[in-house]
Amino acid sequence: MSNINVEPYIADEDYNNPAMVTDFYEFTMANCLFQHGFKDKVMVFDMFFRRNPDNQGYSISCGQHALVKFLREYHFTEKDLVYLRTKGMSEEFLDYLRTYRWKGDMYAFKEGLVCYPQVPMVRIECDMVGAILIETYLLQTMNFHSLIATKATKISGLSTHTPRNVMEFGTRRAQGQSAGDNGAYAAILGGCIGTANCLAEMKYGPDVKAVGTIAHSFIEFYENEFEAFKAYADTYPENVSLLLDTYNILESGLPNLIKIDDYLIEKYPNDPNKRVKSARIDSGDLARGYKRLRKRLDEAGKPYVKLVASNSLDENTMADMELYEGARFDSYGVGEKLITSSSSPVFGGVYKLVAVKEDDGTYSPRMKCSDSASKAIIPGKLMAWRVYDEEGKGQADIISLDDEIIEEGKEIVVYDMNPDALHHSRKITPLKVEKLLVPHLINGELAMELPTIKEKKEFIKDQLENKVWESELRPKMPHSHYVDLTEKVYEVREAMYKKLHGGSLD
Questions:
Q1: How confident is the model at residue 6 (pLDDT cuts 50, 70, 90)?
Q2: What torsion do the CA atoms of 224, 229, 231, 237 make, to the nearest 10 degrees?
Q3: Distance spanning both ends of the chain, measured CA to CA
Q4: Pick from 208, 278, 218: nearest CA to 246
């Protein structure tokens, strides 16, 4: 390296190549392995998570669409290579990266699949470079999308079978532009009906619909509230939604709404679509405001005016208003507590080496042991299965070796991963079995038809309504989904733990 003239890298804050969303240690490892002759060595990594957000009974797997796009477009630019040269990467490694394209296999859950801790949700099999260098982007993408989609199912009421019309309003509180855009996408999959984010609709299409009307500043601009309302109604007579709490909800906002609606009736007597559609309140005691507004609007002969609530809402606040106070708004705008999943802002997915492909085509398992049994990973090239009960609901997930087949109607021995289980091993006879890891990319090429946003949204809704035990959907103290190992996986894991750590997982 001392004889190489290293050009300085000039920082460029506008530069953006997703392939460089990489922790530096990934490059140091890859360069080292490259130098030692392992550039063609095929590795198998699993991405999984250890705990559901908010200590809930399930999560939603999301982000596969973005990960597929990233891998299909994976490349390095000359700018990347200049930078990496300044960080001590070898010239041979840089030459290799110059023309590198991702040619591995990606097996993953279908986007939107209900998922559970410890079960591999993404499996990557690729040459050393393509397996190691994608870790950070993969985790960032899958973790964030899954976090927000999961939170959205709770806020939208899908998890409790009490669906709400929820609009995602969190862009301004999101942790950066990408979080706002990707969060809007994930929120829609999780049951939201729209987003405030215009760019999200431009990126993902009309299924991620941008919605909104006016803010307090618009009303403040005019000399009085009525003039502001009238200006908006004249401009958008078929989409009149008014914000009532700029000055006083009951003494100002409501009377002016009634006057505007009467004005529209007089102006468009034969067009019932040109009326005040809704009224939003964004402050104060929302439940109390709902009941007073609903009563007075009905008394004024305007039951068609719908009520919208916003202001730091989450699933708990909305449930309390609905259950204890009978205040069930027609729709809600939910911001920071959705887009940041503020009650549990981290989805703890990890990416671990589980196997290395040998020259003879076999796979040698790899294992991180740890002093904590809960963090001892499951070694081997694995497959995930879901077993359904007689009602068609997911009874358990089973982790097998990739070449194992779990057959319907055939008894198998499984080992419960729950350390508190009374009996770790038991025999089960699956009634219905589904293979969960499906090919998304094979040799870097698309291996499946990717579903639409609408299809993925319906997929999530159908699972929560029909395919998940009610006990797993409880907001408090939910049932822990059964996750089991096949006998072969259990034996491999036990043997490796005893060999590498000198103990037993039991």
A1: confident
A2: -170
A3: 50
A4: 218
Residue 1 pLDDT: 43
- Ranges of beta strands (E only) in 166-324 are 166-168, 194-195, 240-243, 276-281, 306-310
Q: Is the pLDDT of residue 30 over 60?
A: yes
* Dihedral angle sign, alpha carbons of residues 200, 205, 313, 345: negative
Which two three-digit tokens encode residue 499? Answer: 């060999």
Tell me the two tokens of residue 467: 């395919």
Q: How confident is the model at residue 3 (pLDDT cuts 50, 70, 90)?
A: low
Q: What is the pTM of this model?
A: 0.95
60 within 8 A of 112, measured Cβ to Cβ:
yes
230 SS3 class: helix
Residue with tokens 């405001």: 289
Instruction: Give the H or E element holding residue 355.
Output: strand 349-357
Beta bridge partners of 308: 280, 331
- Give the Cα separation of 391 and 394 in Å (integer): 9
Angle formed by the axes of helices 177-189 and 135-155, to 10°? 50
Residues 466-503 as b/e (b if ≥16 CB within 10 A, e otherwise) read: eebbeebbeeeebebbbbbbbeebbebbeebbeeebee
Q: Which residues on neighbouring strands pair with residue 70, listed in sequence order?
A: none
> Cβ contacts of residue 10 below 8 Å, gap of 6+?
none
In the chain the domains, ranked by start, together with CATH numbers, are 18-149+345-500 (3.20.140.10), 150-339 (3.20.20.70)
What is the three-class DSSP state of 352? strand
Backbone angles phi, psi at 64, to 5 degrees: -60, -40
Percent of the chain with pLDDT over 90: 93
Q: Is the pLDDT of residue 2 over 60?
A: no
User: Which two structure tokens, joined as six digits, stand for 466?
Assistant: 């029909």
Name which of 242, 237, 238 is nearest 222 in CA terms. Answer: 242
pLDDT of residue 376: 81
User: CA 186, 189, 195: angle at the middle one, nearest 5?
Assistant: 65
The helix/strand/coil state of 356 is strand
Residue 370: what pLDDT?
Answer: 77
DSSP string, 183-200: HHHHHHHTT--EES-HHH
The token pair at 410 is: 């055939």
**3-state class of 17 per DSSP?**
coil
Q: For residue 434, what is the enclosing H or E element? A: strand 432-435
Q: What helix, strand, coil percent values describe the chain, rounded to 5?
A: 40, 20, 40
State how far the Cα of 219 lies from the Cα of 223, in Å rounded to an integer.
Answer: 8
pLDDT at 4 over 90: no
Structure tokens, 110 = 């279908």
Q: Which two tokens stand for residue 374?
A: 């809960």
Of residues 420 and 364, more confidence is placed in 364
**CB distance 57 to 472 below 8 Å:** yes
As a whole number of angstroms, the distance between CA 25 and CA 15 comes to 21
